[in-house]
Amino acid sequence: MKQIYIAGSFSTDEEKDLLNKMIEKVKIDYPDYNLYIPMDHFVPGGNDKDENGNYIMPNDVWAKKVFDMDVNAIDNSEMIIALYRGRYSGTGTAWEIGYGYANKIPITLYVPDNTDTTSLMIVNSATNVISDNKFEQK
């Protein structure tokens, strides 16, 4: 099945809400695609804790596993759809967009309302920009 990689920060409740709204739209627009949503994927054993409440897996090991899992998912995707909140987007989202661009993977940016500052590098790496705001679709 064809796959879309969903990029976007999900560190706060506001970010999760925006990302989930975008995901619902993507599911409607691309019903025949599998969506790879990083916030839904976990490293086996990555959340396990010892009797003192400390994580068993060292952070650097967990981080490398997450990185490898997400890079593999991007490599196996036909496109990236990113929630782009301008300069308030996470560095991980910017990296995913740049990696996709470097590997010639088409990128669509969903820009939420009230996004008033953007990066020319991110916007110009996109194949398509979708917004109700002042940005025009490319």
Write a concise keyword list for the protein shown above.
138 residues; alpha/beta; 4 helices; 5 strands; disordered C terminus
Topology:
Blueprint (H helix, E strand, L loop, with lengths): L2 E5 L5 H17 L4 E3 L22 H17 L3 E5 L7 H12 L4 E5 L8 H6 L2 E4 L7
Parallel strand pairs: 1-2, 1-3, 3-4, 4-5
SSE order in H/E notation? EHEHEHEHE
The end-to-end distance, rounded to whole angstroms, is 27 Å
Number of helices: 4
SS strand fraction: 15-25%
Q: In one word, what is the shape? A: globular
Taking pLDDT < 50 over at least 5 consecutive residues as the criterion, the unreliable ranges are: 134-138
User: Quick one: how many beta strands?
Assistant: 5
Mean pLDDT across the residues is 88
Largest β sheet strand count, sense and barrel closure: 5 strands, parallel
Strand order, biggest sheet? 2-1-3-4-5
> Gyration radius, to the nearest Å?
16 Å
Could you say which structural class the secondary elements and strand pairing correspond to? alpha/beta
- What helical percentage do the residues reach? 25-40%
What does this structure look like?
With 138 residues, the chain is α/β, with parallel strands linked by helices. Helix content is 38%, strand content 16%. The chain contains 4 helices and 5 strands. The chain has helices at 13-29, 59-75, 91-102, 120-125, and strands spanning 3-7, 34-36, 79-83, 107-111, 128-131. Strands 2-1-3-4-5 form a 5-stranded parallel β-sheet, with helices on both faces.
Short description:
38% of the residues lie in helices and 16% in strands. With 138 residues, it is α/β, with parallel strands linked by helices.
